[in-house]
């Protein structure tokens, strides 16, 4: 005769299924996001990739930092054994002069220093 399964064995099996589902989701989202970022990195010739769009915004920077922290073990394994690329969070780019922005209210003026007379001997 077959032994009936206990509640404990059903809970154990359910816990294993849930853990495996989370592991598959974790690996799947990492592979999707990293490979999408690597394609962009290849287009631009970068030696790193982003999980988000490479254009900066505060939300993208925060999302990138969170994803880099979340996927850190997989980023290290992937960089050391597979791709050689590491992920980065998007950082703001500081422009020297934005040609589309309004003119500066106090533009810098370049002036020559007054010439001092040369001492006579």
Q: Could you walk me through the main structural features you see in this protein, from its secondary elements to its overall organization?
A:
The chain is mainly alpha-helical and 121 residues long. It has a domain at 29-92. Helices cover 50% and strands 5% of the residues. The protein contains 3 helices and 2 strands, in the order H-E-H-H-E. The protein has a two-stranded parallel sheet with strand order 1-2. The chain crosses the membrane at residues 12-33. Keywords: Membrane, Transmembrane, Transmembrane helix. Residues 95-121 are annotated as: Disordered.
Features:
121 residues, mainly alpha, two-stranded parallel sheet, 2 strands, 50% helix, rod-shaped
Write the SSE topology.
Blueprint: H1 7-44, E1 48-50, H2 58-70, H3 72-81, E2 86-88
Parallel strand pairs: 1-2
Report a brief summary of the structure.
With 121 residues, the protein is mainly alpha-helical. Helix content is 50%, strand content 5%.
Q: Find the count of extended strands (DSSP E, 2+ residues).
A: 2
Task: State the low-pLDDT regions, or none.
Answer: none
Outline type? rod-shaped
Number of helices: 3
- Distance between the first and last residues' Cα: 122 Å
Helix content: 40-55%
| Major sheet: arrangement of strands | 1-2
Mean pLDDT: 83
Give the oligomer, counting copies of the same chain as homo and different chains as hetero.
Answer: single chain
Order of helices and strands: HEHHE
What summary fits the major beta sheet? 2 strands, parallel
> In terms of structural class, how would the helical and strand content be classed?
mainly alpha
Radius of gyration, whole Å: 28 Å
Strand proportion: under 5%
């Amino acid at each position: 005769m077959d032994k009936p399964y206990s509640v404990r064995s059903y809970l154990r099996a359910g816990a294993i299924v849930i853990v495996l589902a989370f592991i598959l989701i974790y690996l799947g989202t990492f592979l999707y996001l990293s490979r999408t970022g690597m394609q962009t990195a290849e287009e631009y010739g970068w030696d790193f990739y982003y999980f988000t769009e490479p254009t900066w915004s505060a939300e993208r920077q925060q999302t990138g930092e969170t994803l880099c922290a979340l996927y850190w073990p997989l980023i290290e394994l992937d960089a050391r054994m597979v791709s050689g690329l590491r992920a980065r969070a998007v950082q703001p780019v500081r422009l020297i002069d934005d040609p589309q922005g309004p003119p500066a209210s106090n533009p810098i003026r370049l002036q020559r220093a007054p010439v001092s007379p040369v001492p006579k001997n």
